[in-house]
C-alpha cells in the first residue's frame, strides 16, 4: 500500500477567487444531436461522402448555368463533330477537348457533359421524393403497428410481408410501361416523373416501416412513456410528443441509405426503356443508348461513373450518420 501524499502549504489551501470564478458558470449538457455531430466530424470518410452529396445537389440545382458556362444545350445536335462515314465522334477519346469536356455522343453529337449534368436533377429529384413517400408511409404504419400492437400489428405486419415478397422490378416495368401521355393534370415526362416517384416510393416503404416498428416497440416500454400514460396523456399526444421525436435519428439514417437505392432503381427503369422518355437526358437512358456503342468506352464510362459516385457518396454518408447516432459504435 502506498502512503498518502503529503499535501501542505499553498497546495492544500483553496483559493476563494478560483472558487468564485467557477461558481457562476453553468454546466452545459450535450444533446444527442451535438454528440452525433462531434462523432461525425471525426469520420473523414463520411464527411467526404457528405461533401460529394452537397456538390451533386448544387450541380442539379444550378445545372442550367453550369451547362451554359462549360457545355452546350443537352438536346442540341452537333453533326460537325461526327464522322459521316462511321457515325462516330471525330478525334481521339470520343471528341474530348476544351469545347466538349467529356466528348460527344455517336450519331448525333450531343454533348455528354451537358447531358450528365442535366440528368442529375432527374435522378436526385426522383430519389429524394420517392424516399419522402417511403418515409411517410413507413413511419405512419410502423408507429401504429409498434405502438398499438395486437391485431393491428399483425395486420400491418402481413401487409409488409406481402410488399416485401412482391416482384417490384417486374411490377414497376409493367406499370411504367402503360403510363398514359396525360393524366392527373400532368403530361409527358412530368407525368412519368410523378408516376415513377409514386411507384418507387409506394413499394419501398416496408423496409423503413419494419425499422420504425421495432424502434417503437422498444420506446413504448420506456419510463417516459409510462410516466405520460400515468399522467393521463392520450395516445396521440404520446405518439407525437414522446415517440416520434425519438425516431428522428433512425429515420434520418435509413432515409439517407434509401436514397441511393431509389436512384439506382430509377436508373434501372430508364436503362430498360420504361423510365423517362427520350430525348430527355437520364443517366440510365444514356447507359441504355451506350450499349450499342460498346467500342466507345467514354460513352459508357461517364454516365456509369456518375451513378457510381452518387450511390457511393450517399452510402458513405449514411454509414457515417448511422455510426454517429449509434452509441454502441463508440
> What is the terminal-to-terminal distance?
35 Å
Q: Report the order of strands and helices.
A: HHHHHHHEEHHHHHHH
CATH class: Mainly Alpha
CATH architecture: Orthogonal Bundle
Tally of DSSP β-strands: 2
Q: Tell me about the biggest sheet?
A: 2 strands, antiparallel
Compute the number of helices.
Answer: 14
Report Rg.
27 Å
Low-confidence stretches: none
| Share of residues in helices | 55-70%
β-sheet strand percentage: under 5%
Mean pLDDT: 82
CATH homology-level superfamily: MetI-like
Structural category is: mainly alpha
Q: Could you tell me the CATH topology label.
A: MetI-like fold
How many discrete structural domains? 1
Task: Give a brief description.
It is found in: Cell membrane. One of its GO terms (biological process) is transmembrane transport. The chain has 330 residues and is an all-alpha fold.
Layout of strands and helices, then pairs:
Layout: H1 16-23, H2 32-42, H3 44-61, H4 63-70, H5 112-148, H6 150-165, H7 168-176, E1 182-183, E2 186-187, H8 189-202, H9 205-219, H10 223-230, H11 235-243, H12 248-271, H13 283-290, H14 297-325
Helix pairs in contact: 2-14, 3-5, 3-14, 4-5, 5-6, 5-8, 5-9, 5-12, 5-14, 6-9, 9-12, 10-11, 12-13, 12-14, 13-14
InterPro entries: BP-dependent_transpt_permease, MetI-like, MetI-like_sf, OppC_N
Transmembrane segments: 45-70, 120-147, 159-179, 191-212, 251-276, 296-318
Subcellular location: Cell membrane
